[in-house]
Every structure is written in C-alpha cells, then in structure tokens.
Write a structure and sequence with these properties.
Distance between the termini: 76 Å
Helix content: 55-70%
Oligomer: single chain
Shape: elongated
Radius of gyration: 24 Å
Strand content: under 5%
C-alpha cells in the first residue's frame, strides 16, 4: 500500500543496520561501516517520505534523486532536511534545485532562488534549465548575468537572438566564435552579414 511506503522497508533497514554493526567491529572496515550507516539513514528518511506523501517513489533512489523528487513535489522543507542530514554541498544543492524547479516550470520560484544570493554555480545552469524546458523567455532573464561574453553569445544563439549574440561575441573578440555563430544563423542572411562584418573588423584590429 502506498500509504505504508515501499514493502519490506523494515527488514531491509534492520539488515543494513546489522551489517553496519558488524563492520564497526573492526577498524579495517571503517569505510564500509560508515557507508552502511548512511544507507540505513537514507532508507529511513525515504520511508518516512513515502508515508507522508503517500507515494512509494523514494526508497532505493539516490540522495540527489530524493532531493529532486521532494522539490518536484513541492516539499522544500523535506528537501532541505535531506540536504542537511547528508551534508550535500551548496553547488550540488543549486544544480538539483534549479533543474527540479525547471522540470515543474515553477519560474517564479526559480527566479526567487536565483536572487537569494550569488549562485555558487553561476547563472549558466539557470539558462540551460530554461532552454531545456523550452522557455526561451525565462532564459533571457539570466543570460545577461553570465560573466563570460562567449557564454552569453552562445546562449543567445541557442534561443535564436542573432543581434544579441553578435553584440556579446564582439565583446569577446573571438573570431572563431563569430565563425561558429555565422554557421548557426546560416539561414539568416542579415545575421550572417553582421557576423562577417564583425570578423572583418576583428581581423583589421589584429593586423593594425
């Protein structure tokens, strides 16, 4: 029954705890003992989540997947508890939360999350998550925040914004990048002309 969590959770946890106690008896198996202890703790938390959510979808998933599923279900407190209990790094936490929020298309929450503090992973994952979700309008919010003009140029190109891509590429002063962008917009004569002009200007500056 979904409300009782996944079947045989009790015996499995006891087996893992028994293994942990056996490993703990010798110094040679410190790593195995710690791993078994962590696994038992994760199984207990996952069972509790299955009981509270009435969905048997947590047991046997990884720590990352457990956090991701909690966020997708809107249970942010549980996600934070898992993060804290298993000492998940801030970078990993940001990656998981960004893509989880994009999965459920909660763009308001994603934007709010981006403003809590300077993201330790930068803003590129925010851009990637929005583009992968097919939301170019959301991606535009984060592209200007990308520190590297090459990344800005490539990101604008991915959502079909030729002029903005050209502006960013000109700041990067990268002839190879301009060449790639021209190929990206090969069907757009006006855009191709812009990239050719920028490459010529860059070549002229390099020769002077």
């Amino acid at each position: 029954m979904a409300s009782k969590g996944s079947p045989l959770h009790g015996p499995r946890i006891k087996l893992v705890e028994k293994a942990q106690s056996l490993f703990a008896e010798t110094k040679e198996h410190t790593f195995e003992s710690k791993a078994a202890e962590e696994h038992a703790k994760l199984l207990r938390m996952q069972h509790e989540l299955e009981v509270t959510t009435k969905q048997a979808i947590f047991v046997d998933s990884s720590i990352s997947d457990t956090i991701r599923t909690c966020i997708v279900l809107g249970n942010h407190r549980a996600a934070m508890k898992v993060k804290t209990e298993f000492k998940v790094s801030e970078k990993r936490w940001y990656w998981l939360k960004v893509f989880a929020l994009a999965t459920i298309k909660d763009w308001v929450a994603l934007e709010k999350f981006s403003k809590e503090k300077k993201p330790p992973i930068g803003y590129r994952p925010f851009v990637e998550a929005c583009i992968e979700a097919g939301e170019k309008g959301e991606a535009i919010k984060y592209i200007p925040k990308l520190a590297d003009p090459r990344e800005r140029a490539e990101s604008y190109a991915r959502i079909g914004m030729a002029k903005e891509a050209a502006d960013a590429a000109s700041q990067a002063k990268d002839g190879e990048l301009l060449g790639r962008l021209k190929l990206t917009f090969a069907q757009n004569a006006a855009a191709s002309t812009i990239f050719d002009t920028l490459r010529d200007r860059l070549s002229f500056q390099g020769a002077s």
